[in-house]
Amino acid sequence: MKYSSLTLFLFLTVVFSAKAQQEMPLYPGAIPNSRNVPDTEVVEGRETGGRFISNTAVPTLSVFLPKHPNGKAVVICPGGGYRGTAIDKEGVLVAQSLNADSITAFVLKYRIPQDLTNVDKSLAPLQDAQQAIRFVRKNAAKYKVDPAKIGIMGFSAGGHLAASAATRFHKMADPNETDTTSVRPDFVVLVYPVISFTDELVHKGSRTNLLGENPSPSDILLCSAEKQVTPDSPPAFLVHAADDKSVPVGNSLAYYSACLENGIPVEMHLYPKGGHGFGMFNTTTPDEWMGRLRNWVRML
User: Fold this and answer.
1) Per-residue pLDDT tens for 72-109?
2) How confident is the model at residue 124, as a pLDDT?
3) Backbone angles phi, psi at 280, to 5 degrees
4) Mean pLDDT rounded to a whole number for the chain
5) Distance in angstroms (rounded) separating the CA atoms of residues 12 and 66
6) Which of 41, 111, 222, 298 has the smallest count of CB within 10 Å of its CB?
7) Segments of 118-233 assigned E as strands
8) 263-290, pLDDT tens digit by residue?
9) Is the whole model's pTM more than 0.85, yes or no?
């Protein structure tokens, strides 16, 4: 049967009250590609979905450790149109659910692309995603993680960030980075993701926030993840609703097709209804996509 409002409320209340074992600065020293300005971060509470954090200039990584880690880890990138992060609904809640299946989780509060706080705003989120993967891989023994089983997961614009990390790992987003630790994720999970910046499929808010009002054709190509998939890209898992009016389902279809064309293992689950931003709970169906995800991850 469908989830009741009471069931969702109780579950969200329990999870949102949970705290990460540790929230730490993403960078041990100076933040690359940043301007020396006051922190402008704003935290808002929403009636559904918990906290929404905007204007983040100081990225952090929150660690969620399971009781019995199975060696697999996921870096989670909440969505928010590149203007903020739905840190609870698409971060904390998901991390707690993964922990229940013995998966170690890291919630990334990445920088919001702004000219005020970043020298090149288009690179800041990807720098943060690569740094998060680098951190987890370098500290794999500490967190009882297999360094060859580190994935990245993203929702909406966070899905664009995760897809970018999964397709643009050959080159460091930070040109001054000297650490040679691999930033390639071993798998990627994309939930109602922004994938393409082409006019046909674009979520205009995400593209404008990341690249500005008049992006160049080369920047549009580079930031269209379906155009960047290669045979080296990691296995992918996608979830989307066909009636998504904010981010067309064609985004997921394009990434799925690109994976097939390049021989990348890919699984996709499409729902006829659900709209955009349903998080872990698509209330239009009794199907639980998180259960399907857990089955997929077990097979990796």
Assistant:
1) 999 999 999 999 999 999 999 999 999 999 999 999 99
2) 98
3) -80, -15
4) 93
5) 19
6) 298
7) 150-155, 187-191
8) 999 999 999 999 999 999 999 999 999 9
9) yes
3-state secondary structure 185-215: CCEEEEECCCCCCCCCCCCHHHHHHHHCCCC
Tokens of 179: 């650490």
Q: List all residues 6 or more positions away from 19 whose beta carbon is below 8 Å from its beta carbon.
A: none
Encoded tokens for 246? 């904010």
Residue with tokens 């922190």: 39
Q: Would you say 16 and 93 are in contact if contact means Cβ atoms under 8 Å apart?
A: yes
Tokens found for residue 153: 């997961």
User: Angle at the Cα of 238 (from 233 to 241), degrees rounded to 5?
Assistant: 150
Q: What angle do CA 64, 130, 119 make, to 5 degrees?
A: 120
The single residue listed with the structure tokens 């872990």 is 280
Tell whether domain 5-298 is in CATH 3.40.50.720.
Answer: no
Task: Please report the sign of the dihedral spanned by the C-alpha atoms of residue 157, residue 160, residue 166, residue 170.
Answer: negative
User: Averaged over 24-52, what is the pLDDT?
Assistant: 90
Farthest CA pair distance, the chain? 53
Strands in 217-298 per DSSP E: 236-241, 266-271
Comparing CA positions, the residue from 151, 259, 160 lying closest to residue 208 is 160
Tell me how far CA of residue 106 lies from CA of 59, 163, 180, 290, in angstroms: 13, 17, 21, 17
* Pair 229, 262: CB distance under 8 Å: yes
What's the token pair of residue 74?
A: 């996921």
Contact indicator for 202, 234 with CB cutoff of 8 Å: no
Neighbours of 34 (CB within 10 A): 17
- Give phi and psi for 290, each to the nearest 5: -65, -35
Q: Where are the domains of the chain?
A: 5-298
